[in-house]
Amino acid sequence: MGDLEGAGVRLAVARNEAARRALLAPLRLARPWVALDLRRRIAGHARAQARLRARYGVSPATPILRWGPAVEAAVAAWAARQRGVRWAETSGSTARPKRLPFTRARLRAIRRGSWAAAVQAGHAHGVRRPGVFVLAGLERDGSLSSLLLDEPGRTPWLEGLVMPSKLLWEPGLRPLLERFDVAACRLWLLLLADPGFLYATNPSTLAVFLERLATAWDACAALARAHLAGAPGLAPLLRRVTCRVASPGWLARVRRAAEAPAAPPLEELLPGLRCYACWDGGYVGPFLERVRAALPAPRFAHVPMYSMSTETVQTTTWYDEAGRPRFLPLVPGVLYELLPEGAPDDPALLAGTDALEPGRAYALVVSDAHGLRRYQTDDLFLCAGRARGLPDLRFLRRQGLAFSFTGEKLTGAQVEAAFAALRAARPALGHVQLTLVPCAGGDVGEVSPGPAARPHYRLVLAWPGPPDPAADLAGAAAELDRLLGEQNREYAAKRASARLGAPRAVALHYEDLARRLGAGAERGWELQFKLLPLLTRTWEALGLAPAPEATP
After folding, report:
1. Residue 328, φ and ψ in degrees, nearest 5
2. In 263, 285, 378, 435, which residue has its Cα 20 to 30 A from 403's Cα atom?
3. Are residues 378 and 411 in the same domain?
4. Angstrom distance (rounded) from CA 335 to CA 331
5. Domain boundary among 398, 415, 435
């Protein structure tokens, strides 16, 4: 213990904790300022929207545009007028990646919005430690998340205290990542820092990490054990990192992990952890349920994220008088217009934020200072109510997901409804992410092989952890076939006429599926990959078809 916690380490830990306390004070003082700023923006929302409409030249005749050559040209024209532009790409998991430009000022504005949301959440949930540990990809890629995290050089000491996970991006920590499991490196840093917040954009990232702790504890605890044992060849590096981020009690936490035969409850390992933040809208429910099981309430509070896409930040978090998060159309510089769900892209049907009806769903159309003019995001939001006169917008799903082999025009909403019924009939699938992938051929020996050349849909069951070997894939595929026929008469007719083959089911680990879809670790899949209920590119186009030699 003397070697691990000598006088130099004890002094560094005391310095770290004093700095954390000093950081917490201004965060607490910032909360009234954040609340005042939001009240000011709420009160001036109507006037701000009118000014933006005039500034962007949006008139009743301005057309609604989807991503395509016209939008790309407008975005490129804006970028050409800026200095120091960096480009971010969408994931491309369901379509060709879009490229969007970002300046330092634009990235700073996004970070300010995240900081304001964290300040409010910290106050609402009584967070006593200012640290935020981000579960993010460890490779620089073209994503917006990577741009927000990517800063050259060594992480400054104070920044490392606030976000210890950033140290994993430093070249100096490569020896640890080369020798130990990524989850082991993350767990070790968490044990050292004991942060108040755990953050993952996608709950699947968090679910996979927690599942890894539960099912591969020996590998996850390996770095903690090596640290406790003196780690020949790594001791100086481990000591430097400890001095940079460790908080009081770090050695007891590392020892608890190193000596445990199986994963202890997280409240034992991370007594300071209070909140975890991630998406909760759209299709992430199965993963979020797994996270909630491992991080149970009320000990751990889930902080739902405001909505944003690579194209634009969409909503702002505001906590009402009862301490409930509301998601309001208050992003500075964004002009909001909305179309009722299912409506054509007709400007005459657009509604402003003052005309939305609670309980109805709307597609978001935005204009901003970065080249977008009446851009159809195809993101569908539920108006969950009103707060201070503004709509509370909760992300539901992507609009317009549809695929058709023979005129069945199967939609994402229909698939989502069928999945809900399938889960209700088969509770074992409650924690499994489901997606449907169109397949043009039939050369794989999965469930219900059918005629080789008949197009069909493949049901992919993506487990965050090891797939259940007892899962009834054939039964799930047959049940889904019936449910899709109930949702879509044309699908039922095409199945009856044998123009469509029977669905087939395959079980994959979620991470394996992400890599197969071309969003592997080298592209930061943890941040980028989004699994929709219906993918609109075929199994073959996505690169999921087997190699020729594997074909029976």
Report:
1. -110, 150
2. 285
3. no
4. 9
5. 398
Tokens of 461: 């069951």
Spans in the chain with pLDDT lower than 50: 1-2, 92-95, 443-452, 519-528, 547-552
The Cα–Cα gap between 385 and 282 comes to 18
CA atoms within 13 A on the CB side of 497: 10
Quote the number of domains for the chain: 3
Angle among Cα 261, 266, 268 to the nearest 5 degrees reads 75
Angstrom CA distances, 465 to 133, 134, 144, 509, stand at 22, 21, 27, 6
pTM to 2 decimals? Answer: 0.79
> What is the Cα gyration radius of the chain?
25
The whole-number pLDDT of residue 287 equals 74
pLDDT for 520 equals: 40
Nearest to 434 by CA among 535, 344, 354, 502: 535
pLDDT of residue 545: 56
Contact criterion met (CB below 8 Å) for 164 and 197: no
Tell me the backbone φ, ψ of residue 459, rounded to 5 degrees.
Answer: -90, 115
| 235: containing domain | 7-38+104-304
Please state at what angle helix 7-43 crosses helix 235-245, rounded to 10 degrees. Answer: 40
Per-residue model confidence (pLDDT) at position 153: 65
In a domain, 154, yes or no: yes
Last residue of one domain, picked from the residues 344, 369, 398 = 398
